[in-house]
């Protein structure tokens, strides 16, 4: 046990955990007048503290000795908890709140701690509390307050802080200007950031990196590399952060030549190539399509982290090598939630939705707790598969979990329920959401459109504007689609005419497609054809397909034949369009034209795309096609299909037998 304990009234717990070397009283050099030698010794021990366990024991002794009002020592305690990697920000806040008169050092330490945490808003609130208490901030306060403002995109708060810095005479300090520049970059005001940068007299490496990072963030590779050149001309040696910013802008522009140039500069400058730089190199090469170089860097990396593995998984997935990506994923040690999310995203982008759910099962079996990104991905897969059972399980998980989820997850829930059937549940979730964004309104309006509940979609559209949310192009697409599916012709035309004038939303081709579909479904085929002729852009296959579908509904062979040539020029090998044209002729009993279409398909080697149906039995989804004889398709599935067919026939849903039989034929 260290010898100075004989001078202290220290409990036995401290005796077994702390072992510091004894320093005599003269070793302490401080202008502060300590209350006692014990106080002085405890203060020294706090400065040498290395863990929260040691700190709490020292804090207990400080309280026992009645030193809990000594701000110098308490400030050191708060500083360790707030700033040190081994600290505890909540414990720092607790000590701060129990102090009746916290000093500037305590405020600065806690503000710095919050600015480096996920709870940066508290840094701004503490700063406000500091000002109200009468304490004047200094150059150790304002940079961290500005950092918190930048992370929260709090532009006007940052302007006020900068104004205060100027008033206090510290606005020209480089640490303050660097922090202000970072705020402008985060807020997207790159020109303001550049003005601050140009005004800095003695630019530091942080200044150069911040500005280069700003241009990298906006994808402006020319300015980023121009500054890099100027930086080297002025004798400023770049570091790893400089090169990471440059590699990032190369990744965004997919410029492999620039990327290789940066890699060459890293090698010749002798900058330490740490894991962050290696990961940036891997990301750059993979996004530039050079998987060989990315793999080579990955193989040479001795201590890979999650980002390293995830970069390679995403690289192969983006280039269509899902199997290789899965092999790398399976080799990855110590998978965390980010790793699983990466592989789930790969399967989602590839449209392999069953694999998404299988991987989710493996994730749960490995005891990894899914986060919001995981659940959002699983709900997207459920939406595509129509897997209502799994979707409900995710919903129940969200309801039973006390942690607050963001609006994005609830938007995914609304979409999933709408696509899986119970749109009423989607509407209930939407109405109960505490926070809604534009996407929320777009999703629910689109959901109601999908289910033909046009009037409700219109009501929500009007309420959306009442709540101060302005619609965008996606909103209007959903609204016009809702009018189309509900036969609200006049209402659909009314909103279409007001798009550019009232809502300031330009009419895109998808909006014209909705109106063509609206007019076509209402039997106004001539008007739809005239609208297509007035379109400012060339109609695509969706426009002509919508009109062709309307021709089939209303049996208008004449107009159908007029647009046949237009469609075949755009999609000469689409089996679905040939079948649609054939059905129009079939229902008009124009057998000669039907045979011509068949011969044309045979001549071009075009076959009807075989649709895959799915059915859910006992929580499992089975996919099958017409006359499917695969082992997975059991007799129980066919029995279920027979029951459904009998139900539809009894409800008179299969009255148009001719088209059904024709579409089922093998062509």
Topology overview:
Blueprint: H1 12-15, H2 37-47, H3 52-64, H4 71-83, H5 89-97, H6 104-115, H7 121-132, H8 142-151, H9 155-167, H10 174-186, H11 190-199, H12 205-217, H13 221-233, H14 240-253, H15 256-269, H16 275-287, H17 291-300, H18 306-318, H19 322-331, H20 337-349, H21 353-365, H22 372-385, H23 388-400, H24 407-420, H25 423-432, H26 438-450, H27 454-466, H28 473-486, H29 489-498, H30 509-521, H31 525-534, H32 541-554, H33 557-570, H34 575-587, H35 591-604, E1 613-617, E2 620-624, H36 635-650, H37 657-664
Antiparallel strand pairs: 1-2
Helix pairs in contact: 2-3, 2-4, 4-5, 4-6, 5-6, 6-7, 6-8, 7-8, 8-9, 8-10, 9-10, 10-11, 10-12, 11-12, 12-13, 12-14, 13-14, 14-15, 14-16, 16-17, 16-18, 17-18, 18-19, 18-20, 19-20, 20-21, 20-22, 21-22, 22-23, 22-24, 23-24, 24-25, 24-26, 25-26, 26-27, 26-28, 27-28, 28-29, 28-30, 29-30, ...
How would you explain this protein's 3D organization?
- This protein has about 675 residues and is mainly alpha-helical.
- The protein has 37 helices and two strands.
- It has helices at about 10-15, 35-45, 50-65, 70-85, 90-95, 105-115, 120-130, 140-150, 155-165, 175-185, 190-200, 205-215, 220-235, 240-255, 255-270, 275-285, 290-300, 305-320, 320-330, 335-350, 355-365, 370-385, 390-400, 405-420, 425-430, 440-450, 455-465, 475-485, 490-500, 510-520, 525-535, 540-555, 555-570, 575-585, 590-605, 635-650, 655-665, and strands at about 615, 620-625.
- The protein has a two-stranded antiparallel sheet.
- Helix 12 (about 205-215) runs parallel beside helix 14 and helix 34 (about 575-585) runs antiparallel to helix 35.
């Amino acid at each position: 046990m260290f010898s100075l304990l004989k001078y202290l009234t220290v409990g036995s717990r401290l005796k077994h955990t702390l072992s510091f070397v004894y320093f005599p009283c003269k070793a302490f050099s401080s202008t502060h007048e300590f209350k006692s030698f014990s106080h002085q010794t405890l203060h020294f021990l706090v400065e040498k503290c290395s863990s929260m366990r040691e700190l709490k024991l020292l804090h207990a002794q400080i309280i026992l000795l009645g030193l809990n009002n000594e701000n110098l020592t308490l400030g050191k305690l708060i500083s360790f908890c707030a700033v040190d990697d081994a600290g505890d920000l909540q414990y720092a806040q607790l000590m701060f709140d129990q102090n009746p008169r916290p000093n500037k050092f305590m405020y600065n330490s806690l503000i710095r701690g919050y600015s480096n945490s996920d709870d940066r808003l508290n840094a701004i609130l503490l700063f406000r509390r500091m000002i109200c208490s009468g304490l004047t901030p200094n150059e150790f306060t304002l940079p961290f307050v500005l950092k918190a403002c930048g992370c929260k995109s709090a532009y006007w708060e940052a302007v006020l802080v900068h104004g205060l810095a100027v008033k206090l005479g510290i606005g020209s300090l480089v640490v303050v200007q660097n922090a202000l520049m970072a705020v402008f970059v985060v807020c997207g005001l790159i020109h303001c950031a550049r003005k601050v940068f140009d005004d800095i007299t003695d630019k530091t490496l942080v200044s150069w990196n911040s500005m280069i990072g700003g241009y990298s963030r906006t994808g402006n590779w020319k300015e980023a590399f121009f500054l890099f050149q100027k930086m080297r001309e002025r004798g400023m040696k770049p570091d790893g952060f400089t090169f990471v910013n440059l590699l990032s802008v190369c990744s965004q522009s997919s410029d492999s030549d620039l990327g290789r140039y940066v890699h060459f500069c890293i090698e010749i400058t002798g900058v330490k190539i740490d894991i962050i730089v290696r990961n940036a190199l891997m990301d750059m090469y993979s996004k530039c399509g050079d998987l060989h170089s990315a793999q080579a860097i990955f193989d040479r990396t001795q201590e890979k982290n999650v980002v390293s593995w995830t970069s390679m998984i995403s690289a192969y997935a983006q280039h269509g090598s899902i199997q290789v990506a899965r092999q790398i994923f399976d080799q990855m040690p110590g998978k965390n939630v980010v790793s699983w999310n990466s592989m789930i995203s790969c399967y989602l982008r590839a449209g392999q939705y069953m694999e998404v759910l299988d991987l989710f099962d493996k994730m749960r079996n490995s005891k990894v707790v899914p986060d919001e990104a995981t659940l959002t991905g699983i709900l997207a897969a459920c939406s595509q598969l129509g897997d209502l059972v799994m979707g409900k399980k995710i919903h129940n998980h969200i309801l039973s979990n006390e942690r607050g989820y963001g609006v994005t997850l609830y938007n995914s829930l609304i979409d999933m329920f709408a696509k899986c059937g119970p749109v009423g549940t989607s509407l209930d979730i939407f109405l109960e959401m505490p926070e809604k964004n534009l996407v929320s309104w777009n999703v629910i309006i689109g959901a109601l459109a999908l289910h033909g509940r046009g009037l409700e979609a219109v009501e929500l559209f009007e309420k959306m504007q009442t709540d101060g949310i302005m619609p965008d192009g996606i909103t209007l697409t959903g609204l016009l689609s809702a009018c189309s599916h509900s036969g609200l012709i006049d209402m659909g035309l009314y909103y279409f005419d007001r798009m550019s004038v009232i809502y300031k939303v330009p009419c895109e081709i998808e909006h014209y497609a909705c109106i063509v579909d609206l007019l076509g479904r209402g039997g106004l085929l001539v008007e739809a054809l005239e609208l297509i002729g007035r379109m400012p852009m060339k109609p695509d296959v969706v426009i002509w397909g919508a009109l062709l579908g309307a021709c089939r509904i209303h049996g208008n062979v004449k107009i159908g034949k007029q647009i046949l040539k237009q469609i075949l020029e755009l999609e000469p090998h689409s089996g679905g369009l040939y079948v649609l044209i054939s059905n129009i002729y079939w229902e008009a009993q124009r057998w000669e034209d039907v045979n011509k279409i068949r011969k044309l398909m045979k001549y071009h080697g075009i076959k009807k795309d075989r649709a895959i149906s799915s059915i859910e039995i006992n929580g499992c989804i089975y996919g099958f096609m017409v006359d499917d004889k695969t082992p997975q398709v059991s007799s129980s599935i066919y029995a279920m299909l027979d029951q459904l067919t009998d139900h539809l026939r009894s409800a008179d849903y299969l009255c148009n037998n001719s088209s059904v039989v024709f579409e089922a034929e093998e062509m």
